[in-house]
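Dear Dr. H.,

I hope your travels went smoothly. While you were away I took the liberty of generating a structure for the chain from your last submission, since the lab meeting agenda had it listed for discussion. I wanted you to have the full record in hand beforehand rather than looking at slides cold. The sequence, exactly as received, is reproduced here:
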Amino acid sequence: MGMHHESPTLDTGQSIGGCRVIRLLGRGGMGEVYLAEHLSLQKPVAVKVLPPEMVSERHVERFLKEARMCSRIEHPNVVVIHDVGDQQGMYYIVMQYIQGQNLSELLASQGGPLPWRSALRIVQLAARGLHAVHAQGLVHRDIKPSNIMLAVDSRVILMDFGLVRKELDSSLTRAGQVLGTPTFMSPEQCRGKPLDRRSDVFSLGSTLYCLLAGRPPFQGGLQEVIVQIASGERPTPIERVNQKVSPQLGQLVARAMAPRPEDRFATAASMAGALKKALKSSQLADTATFQTADLATDALNAQPVAAPSEVELLPLKTGREPLQARMAWIAGGAGVACLLVLGLVLNYFFGGADPPAKPPPGPPPSVPANMVYIEEGFARIGNDRDKLRVFLASYFRDEKLEQVLESLAERPQRRKKVPAFAIDRYEVTNVEYAKFVIETGHDPPKHWDGDQPPAEKALPPVVNVSYEDAEAYARWAGRELPTREQWMRAYRGDRDWLFPWGDDYEAGRANVKDNPKYPSTSPVRDTPRDVSPFKAYNLAGNVSEFIRGSYTHEDRICRVGKGAEFGTFGFLRGIAPGQLRYSIDYSGDKGLGFRCVKEDLGTDTP
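The corresponding predicted structure, in token form, is as follows:
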């Protein structure tokens, strides 16, 4: 019996399983999924419920079996089950809430295939999660793009275990019944045969094909697709569908989708290994003449020169942010290094060209004199991989170059429209911060003498401040800290440059490690060539800068800094292994400052 009702089973504010419902996220073949707040844990969760019209002995058995089986799987690429229960005849599963897109939604938003490196990296991580499922003796049976999530922090998570079974077990399936999504099912699944892990390998190969082709491997009506797959028909080779896919990668996809199980990868782990090897293969890299992209894991302890950097900082003081702020970053965890300040995350854009540059219109009269107007346009997070390769080749060779490239280029690029705003022309200086301290009584930075900075440091940017300090200053000024998108739009405008001024690095242009003129922070006007297309200064050097927001990792709140700082290289902050300067807060960081933005340009700043 299907779900025919239009109104949600649960209402906003209703409690179930110790969780308060916020809103409906979606409906599927085995229930409804809601976003909720776990009242005792005080964090967002997803709650899956079995609607009343689906409550039957068979459906309840399948629903509860899904929860019990999934709860035994502990892996960063598999959704976490927190609880399962029955509340007055309402059966529910409380699970990890993942904010992001499933791969079907991602493909739809891109309007075409993903770059091959992005596709391989996504499927490699999914294969790791699938191996963890198989290690429990289970078969997922419904691997497809819509059941694989790409979280906002670029983790890849296997979802929806409504059809999971023990290998070769058909106890909950009627004779001859075919369960799954035909487009991505294996031949043996289409024929209603008992399944082992190699069936999931086929489905994962079909998913990879779909990501590379921008469409499923088999076309036609439902029955036509089932007949094609069940008869052992192979799809058109992916390298003929997408000319940017190499023959070697085409062979990998074909092996995963071999009609006979014995001709496929024997395990999801072996498929993950082949994908990893393909990602590192110089032959594949050399045959790719198009823009590529990867997902985020941890950055290496490498030290190249100043460039557009995004630094994942260590956990801050915890327990002070509301649920709404934490929800936007709840998916943080796997693949994010929060023990040391090592994190550079370079995000790669999934397709599409930059809009042509155009002269910016005059700023509204409400833009303060110390700010620059940023017209509405697109923020592009990440850099062209080939440009990165050329740049890094000056500092690394051979295997080390590839290793650094793979570490620094792992999240998918994204391109997001940003409404017009204004941003500080320079970082907030010590003298500006002193005015805030005097007027509000806010605690000054620890290295100051009272409420005044050292005389020689009046004009450099303020440092030794925490995120909370920066936020307090912004509120006092009637402004906000910039979002990631706002900061990157100010950084390079509509261009796809590695640096605010272009693709070529010039030693001495910014206050970073290779500029011996500045052993510490420099006055904000002392490096006039470190300037962006919108005439915002010092985005590449001097201090790293807080951006708005946080993400939660192991119940600790972490912040993000953008840009390079004096005394360090631009891609990584150059912290020595073992130092834990930021395990509590950032108030001891001499290279971390901030600037502000003004979003409401219809009113004057106080």
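Two observations you may find useful: Residues 168 and 604 are 69 Å apart (CA to CA). The domain at 15-96 is CATH 3.30.200.20 (Phosphorylase Kinase; domain 1).

With kind regards,
E. W.
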